[in-house]
Amino acid sequence: MFVASLGDNFYNDGVTDREDDRFQRIFEDVFQSRAPLDAVPWYVTLGNHDYRKNPDAQLLRYGYDSGGAWKMPAYWYSVRVDFDGGAAGSNYAFFVFFDSWRFTADEKQLNWLRKTLLSNEAQNATWLVAVSHVPAYSIGNHGKNQTVIDNILPILEKAKVDAYLSGHDH
User: Fold this and answer.
1) 3-class SS at 20?
2) In Å, how far are 57, 61, 62, 130, 151 from 66, measured between CA atoms?
3) In this structure, what are the phi and psi dihedrals at residue 159, rounded to the nearest 5 degrees?
4) What pTM was computed for the model?
5) pLDDT at 19
6) Phi and psi at residue 152, in whole multiples of 5°?
7) What is the pLDDT of residues 11-28, one digit of tens each?
8) Which pLDDT value is given to residue 42?
9) What three-state secondary structure class fits 94?
10) Is the peptide bond before 36 cis (omega within 30 degrees of 0)?
């Protein structure tokens, strides 16, 4: 079990630096002090509100292997989650977390996304899931996002992604 945070982690204006007390007040005191959430990793992506101050602070606060719940090793990264049952190593979900706010049309991220989603590990997954902040389509206030539709959606479709989890409209 894990939690996928879909961005806007520190609403309304993000955090200032890695020592910002909002990490303690909003994340650690609330989620890391309550079972069962205190025992599961939180895989995180950034949203537009996280960019209002210092988005790098969310990467710097906790190292990926720090033992803490917060997991955000980079602006884009992948996670494999193995399931019980099935042949050893054959029943798993492969998640790709990427930045759909600042890096949506960034060639470096798009190339990484293509390569990662088309990798053997991703293509052999039982479930292939993309996770980010901005949806391609929404009936909420923000509506559709043409940049995501033009740049991200074709990659997800080519890789036959099973689900795209997103936030943004709240």
Assistant:
1) coil
2) 15, 10, 6, 24, 33
3) -80, -5
4) 0.88
5) 86
6) -95, -45
7) 888 888 888 888 888 888
8) 85
9) strand
10) yes
> For 3-165, which CATH superfamily applies?
Metallo-dependent phosphatases (3.60.21.10)
Q: Please say if the pLDDT value at position 86 is more than 80.
A: no
- pLDDT tens-digit map of 109-148: 999 999 999 999 999 999 999 999 888 888 778 778 899 9
Beta-carbon contacts of residue 45 (< 8 Å; ≥ 6 apart): 4, 5, 6, 7, 72, 97, 98, 99, 100, 131, 132, 133
Q: How far is CA 157 from the centre of its chain?
A: 18
φ/ψ of 26, rounded to 5, equals: -95, -35
In contact, 157 and 167? CB cutoff 8 Å: no
Tokens of 112: 């990484």
64 has a pLDDT exceeding 60? no
Would you kindly state where each structural domain of the chain is located, as residue ranges? 3-165
**The tokens of 161 are what?**
């992604």
How many other CB atoms sit within 10 Å of the CB of residue 158? Answer: 11
Q: Which amino acid is at 35?
A: A
Torsion on CA atoms 127, 128, 134, 140, rounded to nearest 10 = -30
Q: How far is the C-alpha of 9 from the C-alpha of 12, rounded, in Å?
A: 9
